[in-house]
C-alpha cells in the first residue's frame, strides 16, 4: 500500500487489490500473444528420428517465438494469438485481486503486530508474499487449468471457456482435474514472492525513501524483479504447463501425476536444457507484464486513493446535509409546539 500520497488516507486492502487487479488485466491484455507463444513452446516436445509416435500435442513444430507467431497466424489467423484470452484475463483478475488483497492484509497485520518502524526485511517480504500467493492459487487455479487447455487446442478443436471446463470435469480426473498442477502452483508462489520481495528491495536500493515513483522507475523495478523470478522458477513453470495441458500422444493418454514426472519426461526426451524452453517469450512477457503492472498499479492506486477520498467527502457532505435537515425539521416542530405550550399556560389566567 502507499500511504501518504498527497496527504490522503491509504487504500483499504480491497482497494489495493482492485488497483492491482486492474493493472494486471491491462498489462496482460497488451502482451497476451506472448502468453500463447510461450505456452505452445512449453508443451511441445522435440521429436527424435527414432520416435515412432509424435511426442507433441500439435502436429506443427515451432523453432522459436517468431516462428510460432508466424505459424499461428498462418494457420489460425491473427485471432489465433488471442485464443483463450477471456478465461486468461478472468484468471489474471481473480488471481491478482486475491494476491494483492491477502498480501496487503498479511503485510499490514505483520507490521502492526510487531510495531515495526521500518519495512520488513527481504526474508519476511518473501514469506508474506508466499502466504498471499498460496491462498490466491487455491481459489483461482481452475481458471488457469481451463485457459492452458484453451491455449493448446488445435484449430479444429477450439472450445469456449465453459465447454473446455466441462471437458476437464468429464475427464478421468473429474472435478479434481480443475486443480491439476496445484502442488506445482503452490511451489511457484515463490515466483511472485521473489518478484515483489525483490521489487521492495530494489526500490529501497535505487529509490530510497521515495513514495511517488515515476512511470519509468516503476517499469524498471517491475521488469528487473520479474526477470530474476522467472529465471529462478522456469523449470517449474514448464512442468506446470505440462501437467495442465493434454498429455503428449506418445504417452497414449496417460496423464502426468506430478511436476517431477513432467520434468523427468522432458529431460529424458529433450535434455536438461529443455526445462528452460520458452524462456525467451516467458521473460519478455514477464518483464513487460510486471513492468506495466507496477507502472499502472502505482497510477491506479493514486486514482483509487483520490476516488475514495472523493467518495468519503461526498458521504461526509451527505451525512452533514442529512444532519442539518434533521435539525431544521426539529426546530420547525419545536416552533409549532411552542405556541401551543404558551396557550396552555395562558388558559388558566383567561378562565379567572
The gist of it:
71% of the residues lie in helices and 0% in strands. It is built from eleven helices and no strands.
Gyration radius from CA atoms, angstroms: 28 Å
Principal-axes geometry comes out as: elongated
Helix and strand succession? HHHHHHHHHHH
Portion in beta strands: under 5%
Count the beta strands: 0
List keywords for this structure.
single chain; 352 residues; mainly alpha; 11 helices; 71% helix; disordered N terminus
Description:
It is built from eleven helices and no strands. The protein has helices at 13-30, 32-43, 65-76, 85-114, 122-151, 161-169, 182-187, 190-206, 215-244, 259-270, 279-351. Mean pLDDT is 77; it is low at 1-7.
Layout of SSEs?
Blueprint (H helix, E strand, L loop, with lengths): L12 H18 L1 H12 L21 H12 L8 H30 L7 H30 L9 H9 L12 H6 L2 H17 L8 H30 L14 H12 L8 H73 L1
